[in-house]
Amino acid sequence: MKLKTLQLERNRLFLSENPVLRYITFSTLYIAQGIPEGITFFAIPAWLAMNNKTPTEIASFVAVIGIPWSFKILMAPFMDRFTILAMGRKRPWVIFGQLGLIVSFLSIGLIHDPLNNLNELMIAGFFISFFGAFQDVATDGMVIDVVPLQEQARANGLMWGSKTIGTALSLVIGTALINMLGFTSAVSSLSIAVAFIILVPVFIRERSGEKLMPWTDGKAHENSKKSQLKSWKKIITSILKVVILPSTIIMGIASIINGALYGMVDTLLPIFTIQQLGWTNTSYSEVYSITSVVGGIFGMFAGGALVDFFGDKKMIIIYLFIIMVLIGGLAFLPHFWSNDKFIFGFILLYSLFYTFLCIGMFAASMKLCWQVVAATQFTMFMALSNMGRAIGSGLVGTLKDLMSWEYVLLCTALSPLFTIILVKIINFKEHRNKLNTFNKT
């Protein structure tokens, strides 16, 4: 009896056996993504704006570092095909991605005179994004493998909230360190936190009986063997079978447009507040961090619950409508722009509802995934979203060269409107029936 009890206790330390461990692990891994993202996508653009770099230069930097996130669609099938199965289907790739993230994050701090070496800054930022995307693909694949369907909305809430908080904290801390210690010391200091997080995937296994490292004892779990795809032909034919379904295509287009919204707002905010409103990079980072943390906390504890209770499609449309009204309202009220409390309120509400929107979109995307190629299909949606983010970031500089901020904001407000139209015509029930038919053939 004692041996049996001991075995049960040991089993609880595996991701497949312990829901609390799953939530903690995946939240921590998403924090690891948020730290470098806070520096590259937010702190550096604000720092560049503070040092009088043009909107086109800043938007170009953000667009370039956003490109690798579109490569996720190429990474996922490779991970589905190859792995060290005795260590788990995705855990080896999580460890590899985290290692690359540590090295690339350290390298960006070694650039000499980054303000006058924007090309080198872009290259280093590109590799940070590449390994961040790599770790993200592996983590999402592990989530789909070990988290039960009924827990996925809640898990997405915790994960996205954790990433938002990690991004916000690295933004405010990174900005303060850049101003006090300089660029190199600031980035090197934050990279230490990213390095420590690798201990999580190193010491926690997906399923019982697996190896911690290639040289330790253990073997592949039977569930992992059954799920592992062993031929490129099967992977490609299965992907093609599901991506041509109408709901998959519609969600893919919606993901691109929603990503463009994210890229446009997150690129224009530091430029708009610093160069148009006269804020400092410190004041911008503090406001954005506070509002992001609030959005992240509410997302962690309420985002998934709202989706579970009211339904993802309904909540997505509500969030999109609110965001459209917020951005459109800001465009039509330029006489309030000088009021810092008004701008703070806008950023707070945008952060809150965009966090909720992402949780809803992720949950809806997972619902459309076919289990056979779920990791690759979900990654496709995320890759399309990040492609849209890069496009949206690049558009900001072009639009600002052609028109005033009022019209730039109005153009941005069109994104949620288009996404609402697309989401409304997705038929989740019909799509699931198709997937059930695939399972029987």
Automatic annotation (TrEMBL):
Keyword Ion transport recorded: no
Record domain Major facilitator superfamily (MFS) profile: where: 247-441
Pfam families cross-referenced by the UniProt entry: MFS_1
Cellular compartment(s): Membrane
Source species, domain of life: Bacteria
Keyword set includes Transmembrane: yes
SUPFAM superfamilies found in the cross-reference section: MFS general substrate transporter
Gene3D superfamilies associated with the record: MFS general substrate transporter like domains
Gene Ontology MF: a single term: transmembrane transporter activity
Protein name: MFS transporter
Organism: Algibacter mikhailovii
